[in-house]
Write a structure and sequence with these properties.
There is one protein chain. The chain is of the alpha/beta class. The chain folds into 2 domains: about 230 residues, Rossmann fold; about 130 residues, Rossmann fold (3-Layer(aba) Sandwich), CATH 3.40.50. Helices cover about 45% and strands about 20% of the residues. It has 13 helices and 15 strands. The strands form 3 sheets. The chain has a 7-stranded mixed sheet, sandwiched between helices. The chain has a 5-stranded parallel sheet with strand order 2-1-3-4-5, sandwiched between helices. Strands 11-12-13 form a 3-stranded antiparallel sheet. The relative contact order is 0.13.
Amino acid sequence: MIKKIFLLIVLASLMSGCSGSDNPADNRAKIALKSTGDILIGAASPWAEKRNLLWEGISMAANEINQKGGLLGGRKISIVKGDDKGDLTTGQIVAQSFADNENVVAVLGHSSSYVSVPVSIMYQYYGLVMVSPLSTGYKLTTQGYPQIFRNIPSDRIFGEKLAEFCRKKGFNNVLIYHINDDYGRGQSNAFEISALSNGLTVLDRSSYDDLSSARSFREEIKFWQDNYEFDAIFLAGVMPKAAEFVVEARKMGVTVPIVGGDALDHPKLIEIAGSAAENVYAGSVFHPDFAYPAMQEFLEKFRKTYGKEPDIAATQGYEAMMVIAEGIKNAGCTVPADIAHALHSLKAFKGLTGDFSFDENGDVVGKPMIMKVVKGGKFHLVEN
């Protein structure tokens, strides 16, 4: 707690000259109380990423809200778009631009925990609400910031559920391979702890980084083949390296299932790995075959609007925009602290896969994790 307070004090001393106020959060709240125009919401992600349909989801939700008369007696949602390029330095610049705009009351983003975790202190200090649709890094909601939320399960939840899945499938002897960053370490730590409590044996654990080559993958795989008999590999990796690892594993004759989290739920897995992606399992919160009326209604609207299939980013962006709108409606104003209080008080928000709420840390509660597997070049829903 002392460290958190110190960081906030240092940030305040560095940034107060830019804000025009000794307390930028209070200043934002005063402006929000008087505001009667459009409600400004920031949206941050690497928009140029080929797979990223987050914008389409956010935009569709905002248009629906506006077409139904807006919020608070007719005020429209207006989205301020910021491209963080998936880069921390750029993400900090984008976050500062949102913070400097005192009419912005909330931010949807960022997509990567590598960006969202460090910039969350800025949003808290400047008094914005943040809802991250795709950041699973556990640190995001363990900092004690009451205005920071996510509508996707954390790495801890994914790791625990994936270990339970391995137990149910009889993958009793597993290897762990992860990217050496907060995402990979966090999800692998949770998986390993839960694996042990589920009676699984973790034979070995190793990591890679963005500079790892096909040769380094082959060396790791050869070591495993020479020393262990394993039922599955747990892969906490991101694209494109995770797909490249899958290719090398299959080339070397590894036929056991490869199991991973939400980062494997990505079109590039199949695009890069091709047939090597067969029998790769991914934990996720989205699949078009998910039998829930709200999801099917969303799919129909999305296809009609954009003429293409949505992905996990689209559904998460849509939900994040809708949940912010619900917070504003329940708060009866656009004061960020009041919106955050309303979000913490939500009991059963009607999401695309069922009702969910937020706990005291801002983590989503009640959102189911599903499993999907690549068969015949496509992701298929794994029935429980």
